[in-house]
Predict the structure.
Amino acid sequence: MPSDYLTRILTARVYDVAQESPLELAPNLSARLHNKVLLKREDLQSVFSFKLRGAYNKMAHLPPERLQRGAIAASAGNHAQGVALAASRLGTRAIIVMPVTTPSMKVEAVKARGGEVVLFGDTYDDAYTYARQLERDKGLTFVHPFDDPDVIAGQGTIGMEILRQCQQPIHAIFVAIGGGGLIAGIAAYVKQVRPEIAVIGVEPVDADAMSRSLAAGKRVRLEQVGLFADGVAVRQVGKETFRLCREYVDEVVLVGTDDTCAAIKDVFEDTRSIVEPAGALAIAGAKAYVERTGIEGETLVALACGANMNFDRLRFVAERAELGERREAIFAVTIPEQPGSLRRFCECIGRRNLTEFNYRIADRTVAHIFVGLQIQDRADAAQMQETFERNEFETVDLTDDELAKMHIRHMVGGRSPLAHNELLYRFEFPERPGALMKFVGAMSPNWNISLFHYRNHGADYGRIVVGMQVPPEEMQEWQAFLDTLGYRYWDENNNPAYKLFLA
């Protein structure tokens, strides 16, 4: 079987549509990490991602009569464009089933490449089920986004190119993982030719299906997945991709949203290109790996695997990149409400740059300040907290607190004496018409919204924080509401930022 994949990759048909993408030095990132970092620029493909390799290879290997009947796929992103382009080049039709929540930009991109778009369902799973039904009804060939040997082999040509382009020793190759097709193909090739090279997968902490599956020794299906890196938001990895990853992948590194945003900025600073969140995962993983292991002087390859970024999303990325780079720390600092306190607080800060400063009087004895500061690293943040506390200012580090970063920073001073029996929850829901109405309509009319904050980040999903006044005797009904709503949620009633600024 391993030699079979080696043959499949060596004979893959991808270069009718794909270019041999460059392997470029990232000079700034290399200098900061004290390692030679090379970026494999799959974001430069005509569809701005690697996905056309596997899609085209699958379709190019179909018997003529099957190819003539056409292809079908389910996708909300890059795979859709790859299948549409492949069909156009091979002179056949492609039907792409996409969730109705898919942004119009992505729908139009598929249509522009000749794909016939069918919108169905709210989720990828809905679209996938309907696509398989159309496959049977119309006699089409389903092109799986990752769990297919020809698709895996097409993506594996990237590994072949890396080894051809870099003859010197390589310590590790970092690859983003969604369903596993990309890393399975690369690992199957690299481990046969240069087995000393580590192949390391990278997943978001909230979409870690492969990491959990490898740990369990079987495929694990996630109940929910994070949506920020939507290109890898997969609930369950493929059977074949899991088998190959068990055999060939050395480890999987998990990274957070802030780390991914920082990696997007890193790529921009070195290339002046903007990759999508999934496209930056490998870079974020390489940075986390270097920080954990302390290696120096090695050659690391990271795949910049996609650049289909919604422009409006850049607001969020820019805001969070400094946190991901450990260049900003956020604190809640409590000071006495008396003359001279603010001056002493400012003396603690000294000549550091302020990134944010929010203040509103809380009561007659103390004031709570929400402050952001530029820092050098996490040790610098710890020293700053120590300085505050040495001056008898109670301090909470909120740098890693999601509620504080997303919402509280925009709502400081929101206490109310009228908010009796208030519960605070964060929710994440698909950004589509009617989503908010579904939320409000499912609530008991006896409950009153006492706090609400929402901010659009130009993504496929929205985030809100809600304060709800629920009588203690109705907590069972409240829990039933949460269980049946269908949105991801987080209980924030014990959150320190909430207690300091809003409760």
